[in-house]
C-alpha cells in the first residue's frame, strides 16, 4: 500500500541518515520501527518470576492431619473439618 506521511524536515533528515547508515531505505526503516512498536504494544508486560518462599519454623501440621490423605486435606481447606 502506498501512503503519504508528513514529517518535520529535521526529523526526516535524521531518519534518512539512520536508514542510510543501516543500508536501508527510509520506507524500510520506518516500516521496521513501526513493526517493533506494534510488537512491543502487543506483548504482555515483563514480570519478575514468581518465587516460592518456604515456611521455616513452626510445628508442622495440626495433630491428627494426615498429609497423604487428599480428601481430608480438601475438607480442612473447605472448612468442613
From TrEMBL:
InterPro entries according to UniProt: CopG (IPR002145), Ribbon_hlx_hlx (IPR010985)
One Pfam family it belongs to: RHH_1
Record-annotated Ribbon-helix-helix protein CopG domain positions: 1-39
Protein name: Ribbon-helix-helix protein, copG family
Species this chain originates from: Plantibacter elymi
Top-level taxonomy: Bacteria, Bacillati, Actinomycetota, Actinomycetes, Micrococcales
